[in-house]
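Provenance

Sequences were taken from public entries as deposited. Structures were produced by running a predictor on each sequence independently, with no templates supplied. The record for Histone deacetylase domain-containing protein from Simonsiella muelleri ATCC 29453 is shown for reference.
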Amino acid sequence: MSFLKSFIFNSLNFKLYYRYAKRRFAHFVGLKGRTAWISAPACRTHFAGNQHPESPNRLIAIENILRHTHTWARMQKIQAKPINDIQLARVHTRNYINELENQTPAQGVHKIDDDTYLSRDTFDAARYGAGAAVQAVDMVMKQYAKNAFCAIRPPGHHAHANHAGGFCFINNAAVAAMHAIAEYRLERVAILDFDLHHGDGTEDIFQNDKRVMLLSSFESPLYPFTGTDYQGKNPNIINTPLKAGDSSDVFREMVRSIWLPKLASFRPQLIVLSAGFDAHRDDDLGHLNLTEDDFGWLTQKIVLVAERHAQGRIVSVLEGGYCLDSLAVSVKAHLNALVSANRFAQN
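Predicted structure for Histone deacetylase domain-containing protein:
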């Protein structure tokens, strides 16, 4: 009888251990493969005024719509850490960073230009946003995630090496690209910017750096009224301006005829997305007529390029998008495509 009890006891222990080990293995595989959502509470603290379109409500709207979808459960949630000074110095000058720190008000806001306001928490929020971009690169390069989305603010693509502008303080996409080049010795990084506005800061930073390809679509003429007279030495910067009223057909043909062939020729080892969603037809800041389906379609095309040349590695950083409803559904479509790219994602 004692033998039987011992046998039953050992059998039950083995079954329990086996189930535990199986769950842990499944968790590890799923976690390692899933899309990473990287954000920080600090990114909601930057405040430029009650009437300013770049508000904390942008991140709240995105998260609210995602929490009601399967996409939310299929992503691993990562807490961002602030960027360090070495990582920041790869993109921005020390004088500029000192200037931001010195201009930060104890209360209220400091006006940098007509659109860009520095509050008490702005620089802290920007450091966490840039830190998220660094972590995203680390995760995809180390295969802890296949791709990553940085739910961050303030945006970054108008930030130059030595000055802020257009709601932007630290150029997150540039930080991601330079971190990948410096830490992982990548030779070819592509940045794709599909924001409503031309990423003048990103273009300026990489105008002489052939290791980086920059493909940029934007409405022209529109702030910052650049992108049509590029004179840098980097031949891998290609601007593809759109005009007011352009919609899906024009945008998709531009991607097929220009972006995809250029990417195929460049063979990027990492793709960084300056993911702006203000080209949506419902966003009042511009006059383009894209829809959330266009952003989902574009992301699917980018995923295919990444699979072919970059081992699937994509880092997406949030830029513009100021109509809360269209921003939320556009990010949802974007993330659906990123999550679906993952062979480990569960249906």
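The first strand starts at residue 36 and ends at 39.
Residues 36-340 form a domain with the Arginase; Chain A fold (CATH 3.40.800.20).
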